[in-house]
């Protein structure tokens, strides 16, 4: 491989910038002087080794043009922010709950009078963490264990380990959880507004079916009126005394 040589007969070394080795002055010009006891900065006219500076080669006209020249850079103003405010999901969806009305059929065994009962429930869906719970309204003196049927948790959707999401819920569908089918009939106004805002088309609401047992044992509340008797024993005693 052939080496390259400079004008003074010395080879170039790879990775190094060549300097004139014949140069003997390497000091820097003095840029500070004192006058009447005060330090006065001086503008250097030459660099290290008395080499002329590029700034001294510029004419006064070029210096004036550079001082008044504006760069073609566009800066954003303070009125237009560069980013949008980030709100975490657990903050944006905090205390936002979807509520659905539903029921399930309880099969009655060994009873000649009834085959099943209709038991209404409320399904709550918490948007902040995609958990759900099912609560059955309590009826006084019903003799049936009621209240919270399933505590707040993520309900399994299939055998692959997936869970129910709010996109999977709709009116008129069966929500099967742990072997029990809950048929969804209606929802509250907030749930309807939220689902429609997310592009979910809700089905028509369905009426809650009447429980056959409650219908059969409903008391007869027909109005009855008894006409009072005009016969007054006190009046008879006062007017028929001694007769």
TrEMBL record:
<dbReference type="Pfam" id="PF06565">
    <property type="entry name" value="DM10_dom"/>
</dbReference>
<protein>
    <recommendedName>
        <fullName>DM10 domain-containing protein</fullName>
    </recommendedName>
</protein>
<keyword id="KW-0677">Repeat</keyword>
<feature type="domain" description="DM10">
    <location>
        <begin position="94"/>
        <end position="199"/>
    </location>
</feature>
<dbReference type="InterPro" id="IPR006602">
    <property type="entry name" value="DM10_dom"/>
</dbReference>
<keyword id="KW-0963">Cytoplasm</keyword>
<keyword id="KW-0966">Cell projection</keyword>
<dbReference type="InterPro" id="IPR040193">
    <property type="entry name" value="EFHC1/EFHC2/EFHB"/>
</dbReference>
<keyword id="KW-0206">Cytoskeleton</keyword>
